[in-house]
TrEMBL record:
It comes from Microcella frigidaquae. It comes from the Bacteria. One of its GO terms (cellular component) is plasma membrane. GO terms for molecular function: mechanosensitive monoatomic ion channel activity. Residues 92-131 form the Mechanosensitive ion channel transmembrane helices 2/3 domain. This is Small conductance mechanosensitive channel. Residues 208-293 form the Mechanosensitive ion channel MscS C-terminal domain. Residues 132-198 form the Mechanosensitive ion channel MscS domain. It is found in: Cell membrane. Keywords: Cell membrane, Membrane, Transmembrane, Transmembrane helix.
């Protein structure tokens, strides 16, 4: 070992490194990009998992918190968080790959500036040709980030192709899937959505307009309606769904046939439909016990253009006879 030529050895190593310097740099760029992508992926995944696990734990809290955070809201938070995590992962991957490719091409003595200019022109051409797809994706990302809708929400969408209402099943980056009350699954492009009406965010209100005979005792009818709604709101089955005590807003309209009395109840979002059905049944039974018959409101008076249009639309279409001897 004492006679080993260390100077020559290190000179050979230096010559080897100088010869394959570009190759080592390329390998370093690739390894560095892979490590950076792995680190960022771990960070994003941990953040998403922590948010999701926090939401799941929040669903086991006491009654007061359950009032402000319904299961639909929790599903929406989880879905939005996971969507954001997927988007961030994709953006991170593409950004790191693009930078790594540019650095590798630079080490190979390619004209990176000309390549970037060419890629920009190609990207502009593709963006112009696929502008609808880009619009769908951008609109979908904004809807997710802004929490306009989420999985399990009951929504009414106004799109360029017409209105769509139902329960959201999937919120994609490009297409949102909504299943209506008849079971039909609608695929709505995000770029075509103009307005979003969400019935599952925050809170909802049960509104019942109940007609009573014109000659009835209005104060007594209102008292019975309010007592019935208050008793229902106090039942254990419905107590957690009610956010505020029921209210009588008074007479909504007056006609020769009936007085329409409005009863309202503020409830948790998503529960307004079940609560309204149960409340209607109890109000019906209470009015029957009181001896109040709900009057019929079937009279329709039309004149002028409306009457003519209704008459024309109600006529049975006449099918012309088949060709005969003329």
């Amino acid at each position: 070992m004492d006679g080993f030529d260390w100077a020559g050895f290190w000179a050979g190593v230096g010559s080897f490194l100088a010869t394959y310097e570009a190759a080592f740099r390329i390998v370093g760029v690739i390894v560095g990009a892979a490590v950076l992508r792995w680190v960022l992926g771990v960070v994003i995944r941990r953040v998403v998992d922590r948010v999701v696990s926090g939401v799941k734990k929040a669903q086991n809290v006491e009654h007061t918190v359950e009032l402000s955070a319904s299961p639909l809201h929790a599903v929406r938070v989880v879905q939005r968080t996971r969507t954001m995590g997927t988007v961030l992962n994709n953006l991170t991957t593409w950004a790191i790959v693009a930078v790594a490719i540019v650095l590798v091409l630079g080490e190979l003595n390619f004209s990176v500036t000309a390549l970037i200019a060419s890629a920009g022109i190609l990207g502009a051409a593709l963006g112009f040709g696929a502008q609808n797809v880009v619009k769908d994706m951008l609109n979908g990302l904004f809807m997710v980030f802004e929490d306009q809708l989420g999985v399990g929400d009951i929504v009414e969408l106004q799109s360029t192709q017409g209105p769509v209402s139902g329960v959201v099943e999937i919120v994609g980056v490009r297409v949102t899937q909504v299943r209506d009350v008849g079971g039909v699954l609608w695929y709505v492009r995000n770029g075509e959505i103009i307005n979003v009406g969400n019935k599952s965010q925050g809170w909802a209100r049960v509104i019942i307009d109940l007609p009573a005979p014109y000659t009835s005792d209005v104060d007594e009818v209102q008292r019975v309606l309010l007592d019935t709604a208050t008793a229902m709101a106090a039942e254990p089955e419905y107590k957690r769904k009610v956010l505020e005590p029921p209210e009588i807003w008074g007479i909504e309209s007056i006609s020769a046939e009936a007085l329409v009395i409005r009863l309202v109840m503020k409830v948790r979002s998503g529960d307004q439909f079940d609560m309204a059905r149960a409340l209607r049944l109890r109000l019906k039974l209470a009015l029957d016990e009181m001896g109040v018959a709900v009057p019929s409101l079937n009279r329709i008076v039309m004149d002028g253009i409306d009457a003519r249009e209704a008459a024309r639309s109600s006529r049975r279409p006449v099918t012309p006879p088949e060709d005969s001897d003329l």
